[in-house]
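Whether sequence alone determines local backbone shape is best considered at the level of individual chains. The sequence in question and its structure tokens are set out directly beneath this paragraph.

===
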Amino acid sequence: MAFENYTIKDIAKALNLSASTVSRALRDSYEISAETKAIVQAYAEKINYKANPIARGLKERKSYSIGIIVSEIANNFFSQVIDGIESVAYSKDYQVVISQTHESASRERLNVEHLYARSTDGLLMALSAETTDLSYLENLLKKGFPIVFFDRVPEQTICHRVIADNKQSGYQAVHYLAKRGCRRIAHLTSAQNLSITRERLEGYKMGLLSCGLDFDQKLVKYCRYGGLHQDEIDTAVAELATEDYDAIFISGDKLTTGYLTAMNERAGRDAHNIAIVGFTNSKVVSIFSPTITAIRQPAFEMGKRAAELLIQQIEAKHPVVDFETVVLPTVIIEKNSSF
């Protein structure tokens, strides 16, 4: 059976209505009566009418597409953020285009420039680990191009941001470990230039101070690419093995699983003697070995909120001058813990 591409004019002709009336009825306009809307929408459903996004975009000078830029789609956290973004975007008839940076600043810039050149209506971004030069992004923002940052955000740039409560997460992680008798708490974290690194480190330090524990710089290990490469975690774990520590707070999904991999592969070190609290949105955290206490971010909600802010900005009739920083709470989940 051949596919039939019905248009608004076809519906208008069949129902003896004007094309403008049909168009407004399909958009649920207040100008059209409920009875007429019901007739039009029922007929559109009967013939399986689908709006032509290209024609709609040309008419409204919009592409009805938004770009998403993350470090790695396979990351549990980012995949759940994308699910949240899509739940909002598709309900508003926007398509999404997803790209990965693999923590590369140059690839990030190429992705941004490509999506901007293809007339994408706006971007949702988590900065790469290598990114330090924000000037090209700030230039786009000054031109009025909508960008909402989430998770890894520029702290001084004027824009919408959606983040987790990273300081509180670090603080709670240390308190959780200290209450269980841990006195030497290490910290495994990402690139020093990232906002999440600075905020979680600050929370870690605040937690140590409030628990009467000393801060030891030798117990803080940075992985520039956030665990994307296992060898950087192996190096950090080897360095920590020379220190006397009884617990660790891990600041990222990839870092957490990478740390467990490294500890399980090391000979002569009983990984189960180290108490672990780590960020992870994995759905199978209960089978991790050694067992851990997880800090779970509201990834789906973060994606939803970021998408809502972006589409509001895209559809605003006047330039947006008031920007929000949305801070969402995390949750500590203790499952099958050994401590």
